[in-house]
Amino acid sequence: SPGIDRDELRSRLHAMAAAVRQSLTSLRSLLVEIYPPDLAREGLGPALDDLLAPAVASGVDVTLEVPDTVDMDREVTALIWRTAQETVRNALRHGDPDRLTVRVVRPDSEPRAWQLEVTDDGRGLPATSDDGLVMGLRHRDHDIEGVQFHPESILTVGGRSIVQNFLAKLG
Q: How confident is the model at residue 157 (pLDDT cuts 50, 70, 90)?
């Protein structure tokens, strides 16, 4: 009809569609945060994809690699999901990364084992080795910790203290 600038109308419709997509992505991410996914039904890959959606929306270059996890134990799936949730949040909150990679790996040498690798190019956390590997994690709600400690590390500065603190905590 006369008086309608079709280019302006098209431009506004595209802007509104982008805003709706952004709102849906935010809502989806909020729902994942409030109510974790049904990992048994959806699978680990789609759940991790949902977890990473806010990073993608904010411009972070995200890579997700998840093999077939059909035979992954439910408890392992839940542990990997919770660990990924915490590490991805920490990377985004504290690291301000441009790139973020989440990989779930099944080592050939240990067919029953699964590994989660979360790497980014952000500022990082201070609990890293000289080559940038995370050396320790602590669960936010439970008394569960993980520390990467090589036997030769006892000879490093603070090595004996690390072992003594760990043993003291065990009682």
A: low
